[in-house]
Design goal:
Layout lengths: L8 E4 L1 H4 L13 E4 L12 H19 L2
Amino acid sequence: GSKIPVLPCFLEGAFAAWPKGRTIPRPRKLQLRIGTPRTYADLPPGRESATRISEDLRQAVAALACG
C-alpha cells in the first residue's frame, strides 16, 4: 500500500482502432473513462495486499467498461 493515488481507466474502441496484427491504426472514435482516484495507504506491503489491490482495480475497470 502507498499514498500514491491510482486512477482506474477504461479505453473503449481501442481494439476497433488498432486490432491485433495491423501495423497502422484505423481512424475510429475512442472514449476514455476515468474512475475516481484510489489510495491504498492502509494496506501493509506484501503479496496479500497486492492481490487485494489488483482485484479492487480490476472490479473498478470492469465497472467503467459497463458504462
